[in-house]
Amino acid sequence: xxxxxxxxxxxxxxxxxxxxxxxxxxxxxxxxxxxxxxxxxxxxxxxxxxxxxxxxxxxxxxxxxxxxxxxxxxxxxxxxxxxxxxxxxxxxxxxxxxxxxxxxxxxxxxxxxxxxxxxxxxxxxxxxxxxxxxxxxxxxxxxxxxxxxxxxxxxxxxxxxxxxxxxxxxxxxxxxxxxxxxxxxxxxxxxxxxxxxxxxxxxxx
Length: 205
Description:
Layout: H1 6-17, E1 25-28, H2 34-47, E2 54-57, H3 82-97, E3 101-103, H4 108-111, H5 119-133, E4 138-140, H6 148-158, H7 180-191
Parallel strand pairs: 1-2, 3-4
């Protein structure tokens, strides 16, 4: 599952580097940043020399709930059930391809904030996917033991073009610098001791 952000882009790079057959999938679920995210995913896939991403359009999903990802007026950061939905879509896409593994870019920091990024969720989602099909299906998260700063450091060492990635909720060409996505992005580069290559409308504080 590719969102164009640091974590999912790094996960894709990790599996490509391992020589695995990767099928990138981007989902438009009505997020404000969908255009910039999709653009980032396309650039990341091209730079990693993997397939062009499959694009799935379910933008009406974002109309069912109010959160900062889909509504600029909302201060709620959690999109309920989002990762469960994305994992299911990934499993559906993989089914006809003969692919039984869905990869997502969760990291350790997220597990403190979002219940649907924890190891418990990963195990439960994998079990639900297996039960619904009666076959082996697994949700994997290669960075779940790393902090975001450690993911940034790994990605930098691995040659992931982090300047191509996009983390902003707003969907503006330059990162807004105000939203949670921008703040977490900048904090990760700072904590990793690396220069943040991101163009911000306002530097995160």
